[in-house]
Specification:
Two copies of one chain form a homodimer. Chain A is an alpha/beta fold. Chain A contains twelve helices and ten strands. In chain A, helix 1 crosses helix 9, helix 9 runs antiparallel to helix 10 and helix 10 crosses helix 12.
């Protein structure tokens, strides 16, 4: 099944801005796979095909309630020896997302990029095996997106609000805690913001939801940046959290990229309005 | 440490409406304990003292992240042989909350009450040991408040939205799924509503948070009812969810009843405004 951080991220971000994807694939990544990205207008010039190589592979399974993913098999394959070369156009991109891969690779891409706003995702594997590199990578970006359990694990702090503050002290101005079906929380110097997940009766495959969230979140911020809005703007960040949630909610409705690749902006707008309706309340002072 | 469903509930609800508490206590529940309730104006006429008896007792511990409570010891004590007798004033109350206790006891109190809107809480213990009675009790109330894991367990449905629909099919028009630090979701015939938890850097004791939520939620609805608003009104239910969350957030800031007993309506209003600020976002259509 087609997946992977870059694929899910790019498709979600493509609704808001121009997306260029950088990374290696093997012979098994053919015209059909490229076509899914190009069908959404994603620029694939910097996808590097490694002859005789195999594309990164992940297989896992989910618990009863689909909140916890268990990894059964991870094969770095072509990522093991990847030496990133960014084209001039990719190097000059104003915004950069470093998908979940070895932190040293993320650092090399970061150092080649001229982006003014950069973000990264990571996972428990790198927290356990490459902690020092990961902390160095985190210090070099403006925004970190991680699962809440990973933020607790990385900082050794059980309270999420304190853990996020400890993470911000490592360098990034913005921290997003992904909370699976429970939604996401955003932390910055200004304080925090939280939204629940969009509740769905039909969840078929949570794989890629975090990357679709990141794609909606950063894609929206980049679209706003192109209109002159600072990606650190508090109002824009909140809206970006909502768009991220909406894209993640579409992602889980079907396997792989099936749902997001056929999505329309009208459907996104409709769900965003619905999301607002089911999360907002009025304030009235206590009357007794 | 003073606690228990009725105590936490009553204190939280006392900020919004007149509260009468019904239940048995032992000799160990003295003037100090009664004073905590009376200090918030809670009517204690229907608290029945059992001579030589001991008050209901619970002891537990929490996991690393304080999301999961583990029961170490539960002693029903005076609840084991309790035969509820409601005074005329309690019988005539328009709203009734049945705290978490044996479902058959909840049913007996429900059958003595003339309440037009009633709600109950329960727990995994009764789902496992008294399932049939619990289902009967649920069919007799208008609203059920349970942890999301308990709703899944009771209905055998892993998806929360479907599980809540299955629970509504058992009788109650309103279902509230409590999600610990992740907030709460509300389900009714009309659809659903969800809010995240209020994120706090200092969480000292989550015990009673669910009952404080229920007290804020139903207390607010009863205050609105007294002003002529139907407790099933969608807007009032959303606001009640927010007040419930705010009361739960104060509850966890200190042990036992320490924080809520000294709370002011101004502090509640201030946190509610803050809660709105950290959960609301604006909607703008996708521009690309």
């Amino acid at each position: 099944m087609l997946g992977g951080s870059a694929v899910h991220f790019s498709l979600a971000a493509s609704f808001f801005t121009e997306v260029r994807v950088v990374g290696p694939v093997g012979d098994d990544f053919g015209p059909d796979e490229l076509g899914v990205l190009e069908g959404r207008g994603v620029n694939t010039d910097d996808i590097e095909r490694v002859e005789g190589g195999e594309t990164f592979f992940w297989r896992g399974h989910y618990e009863y309630d689909m909140n916890l993913a268990h990894t059964d098999d991870t094969q770095l394959n072509v990522f093991a020896d990847f030496d990133p070369k960014l084209s001039a156009a990719s190097r000059d991109a104003e915004m950069l997302f470093l998908g979940n891969i070895q932190p040293e690779l993320q650092r090399r891409v970061r150092s080649e990029s001229a982006a003014r706003f950069s973000a990264l995702d990571s996972m428990n594997l790198w927290i356990e095996t490459e902690r020092e590199s990961l902390v160095a990578a985190i210090a070099e970006v403006d925004c970190v997106l991680l699962n809440d359990a990973e933020i607790r694990m990385l900082t050794g702090e059980p309270n999420l609000a304190r853990a996020a503050r400890a993470l911000i002290a490592m360098g990034p101005g913005v921290v997003v805690a992904k909370r699976g079906e429970y939604g996401a929380a955003l932390f910055s110097e200004e304080g925090f913001f939280a939204i629940p997940g969009f509740l769905l009766e039909d969840v078929r495959d949570p794989t890629g939801a975090g990357d679709s969230f990141a794609g909606g979140f950063l894609g929206y911020l980049d679209g706003r940046r192109a209109d002159g809005t600072d990606p650190n703007d508090a109002t824009a960040l909140r809206q970006a959290m909502a768009y991220g949630s909406v894209l993640a909610s579409f992602n889980v409705e079907d396997f792989g990229t099936e749902r997001v690749r056929s999505l329309t902006t009208e459907q996104i707008d409709e769900r965003l309005r619905e999301f607002r309706r089911i999360t907002h309340f009025d304030v009235e002072p206590v009357t007794t």
